[in-house]
Amino acid sequence: MNVIVAAGGAEVALAAKSATATIPIVFEMGGDPIALGVVDSLSRPGGNLTGVSSLSVEVSRKRLEFMHEMRPGTKVFAVAVNPTSPTSNSQLKNLQTAATSLGLELVVLKTSAEQEFDGMFTAVHEMRAGGLVFSSDPYFAYRSQQLAALAVRHTVAAMTQSRDFPLAGGLMSYGGDFNQSHRHTGMYAGRILKGERPADLPVQRVTKVELFINLKAANALGISFPPSILSSADGVIE
């Protein structure tokens, strides 16, 4: 028996679903699989799909709140959104709602190409925004090292969903626990290979989120993490 592991987010899950209605698929994504049309039900997904969904998309607005907590005197922040992502509109709506409640101006920067990254960081630096918040998207998560290097070069306080970003020198990250998601995805793939049907395996919801901060990056930016962030961090990089 074959099984497709679609671990690249909602866009990959939808592409796999459209490609075959017979080969079992295990997806790994953020966002709501029902709202995005991936499955009809979490408890009984039906068809040839099941998988794992994390809270990375739902917590996008929390990144803006953390960034504002870091720089409470700043009223302008930038957000990077991948316009090709199926979850971009819902995330942007949540971020705009958060910005309004905090009395902030949000500058939206849309990018879906690596050659646009440098110009994006240049724009954030020149507009003197308090920071750059990335929406949850595998496209950004898989390019954490590149984004961290640009954040350091342009002295931009930035925050993404992936712990790989602060581990590579960026300021901080907040998002779903990828290790837990990967583990559940692998377990489901194994069960299907042993004969179980995707339709009978409920979609797993990974509710754990993690906050990683980089003290060296903060010092270089002249930022001090408030005690509330230091005490709640799951990982502190020195």
UniProtKB/TrEMBL annotation:
Signal peptide: none annotated. It holds the Pfam family ABC_sub_bind. It comes from the Bacteria. Coiled coil: none annotated. This is Putative ABC transport system substrate-binding protein.
